[in-house]
Design a protein that fits this description.
five-stranded antiparallel sheet
């Protein structure tokens, strides 16, 4: 997913967020716990898919792995909320689109390629 695609999804879904997470290499799981030692890092974009409304949380919520370098390209459009879980040595950041960049007048679905192209062009202009 490109920076334009990430921004388009964030603008279309007001509940969407990006979660960056990392766990240090020195972290170890507790005896009998579910975590093993070792480092991990990742970045996902998370949103509620309206096509599965009413099917339950596991079906409604979608997460897509994305590259953090793409998030850095649109970071000026995002708010940041730091989080941590000290006993797991895990931490990260939740990014959300700043309210002034939400698209309040977009259709739920685009009916033509031209509408979709125009939407992506608006997103490109915000990035630059």
């Amino acid at each position: 997913m490109t920076p334009v695609g990430i921004l388009a999804l964030l603008r279309q879904h007001p509940d969407a967020n990006i979660t960056f997470f990392q766990r240090n290499a020195s972290s170890v799981g507790k005896v009998g716990g579910r975590l093993s030692g070792g480092a991990t890092v990742g970045c996902t974009i998370n949103y509620t898919n309206p096509n599965y409304a009413g099917w339950g949380r596991l079906m409604e919520e979608a997460s897509i792995f994305i590259q953090i370098v793409y998030v850095q390209q649109i970071q000026h459009l995002l708010t940041e909320e730091k989080w941590s879980i000290p006993h797991l040595k895990a931490e990260g950041t939740i990014y959300r689109l700043k309210p002034e960049y939400f698209a309040h007048d977009h259709p739920a679905q685009f009916k033509t390629q031209q509408q979709l192209d125009q939407w992506h062009e608006e997103c490109r202009q915000l990035i630059n």
